[in-house]
Automatic annotation (TrEMBL), chain A:
It comes from the Bacteria. One of its GO terms (molecular function) is fatty acid synthase activity. It comes from Ureibacillus sinduriensis BLB-1 = JCM 15800. InterPro entries: Fatty_acid_synthase (IPR003965), HotDog_dom_sf (IPR029069), MaoC-like_dom (IPR002539). GO terms for cellular component: fatty acid synthase complex. This is Dehydratase. GO terms for biological process: fatty acid biosynthetic process. Transmembrane segments: none annotated. Pfam families: MaoC_dehydratas.
TrEMBL record, chain B:
It comes from the Bacteria. SUPFAM superfamilies: Thioesterase/thiol ester dehydrase-isomerase. It holds the Pfam family FAS1_DH_region. The lineage of its organism: Bacteria, Bacillati, Bacillota, Bacilli, Bacillales. Residues 6-132 form the FAS1-like dehydratase domain. It comes from Ureibacillus sinduriensis BLB-1 = JCM 15800. This is Dehydratase.
Length: 132, 149
């Protein structure tokens, strides 16, 4: 396993998810307690003017942070800022990306985003990883 | 009307970071790493316990803010911001409260949009801050009209 501390500015962590499925969103609704029906029930999404159900923004944000989970012995996410910039629909294929942009003392800063199959950002922000 | 909400705060509510909730949450974001779910693995780790994923605090209770009325539909989640002093440990007690930090309006393509900034604070049993969680919710013109504000 790579050590996060050894990554250089400009290098990236990346992972591609399985296509988004309804069961993913049902599970997230249950585990987070966010039962807003636009995330799980087609008719409710349509009533809200959407073409279909959309993923919880927090589901995508939660997924994105897992790029850093393997490095838990080295440090932790001390700051995590996200702007929700696009909707995620069923069958979308998301790629998670984190690019190191700064390394100052104990703080590693990354630009992070999730990008759909049309190369559009759906969430975008920054993570600061604080080394122990 | 929303501007009057600035500064409103909920009373502190006690939570326990529950093992089963953390396991389900980690699995639901496709992050079933043993540091979150395997008890023995957690015990052997630097924390001596399992930890919770960074976006887990959404699950916690922080008490309701008296007088705050928000529509149930038509709200857009704009931004989410976490700050941590350290990871949350499975099994620990966390005391949470929420505060309305700010409200401002901007002209958008579909009319005036309101931005409500709400911050949640999580403290340990000694009152030491563990994390803050900030949400910016966008309230569209249509929703504001329906509320008469």
């Amino acid at each position: 396993m790579t050590v996060l501390n050894k990554i250089n500015i400009g290098e990236t962590l990346e992972a591609t998810l399985q296509p988004v499925s309804r069961i993913d969103l049902i599970k997230y609704a249950g585990s987070s307690g966010d039962f807003n029906p636009i995330h799980t029930i087609d008719e409710e999404a349509k009533k809200a003017g959407l073409p279909g159900i959309i993923a919880h923004g927090m589901w995508t944000m939660g997924n994105l942070a897992k790029l850093f989970t393997p490095y838990y012995e080295e440090g932790f996410i001390s700051d995590y800022n996200i702007r929700f910039s696009g909707m995620v629909f069923l069958e979308d294929v998301l790629t998670l990306k984190a690019q190191m942009v700064d390394k100052t003392g104990q703080l590693l800063t990354f630009d992070v985003s999730a990008i759909n199959q049309k190369q559009k950002d759906v969430v975008k922000g920054k993570i600061t990883f604080e080394l122990y | 009307m929303f501007r009057e909400y600035i500064g409103l705060t909920s009373s502190k509510t006690r939570n326990v970071i529950e093992r089963e909730l953390v396991r389900r949450f980690a699995e639901s974001i496709g992050d079933a790493h043993p540091i979150y779910i395997d008890e023995e693995f957690g015990r052997q780790s630097r924390f001596g316990a399992n930890i919770a994923p960074p976006t887990f605090p959404r699950v916690l209770r922080s008490g309701s803010i008296e007088g705050l009325k928000l529509p149930l539909k038509g709200l857009i989640h704009g931004e989410q911001i976490y700050h941590y002093k350290r990871p949350l440990l499975v099994g620990e007690e966390v005391f949470c409260y929420s505060k309305i930090e700010d409200y401002y309006e901007k002209e958008g393509s579909t009319g005036k949009m309101g931005f409500l900034k709400m911050k949640r604070y999580g403290e340990d049993s000694h009152g030491q801050l563990i994390f803050t969680e900030e949400s910016i919710t966008i309230i569209t013109e249509t929703v504001r009209r329906s509320l008469n504000v």
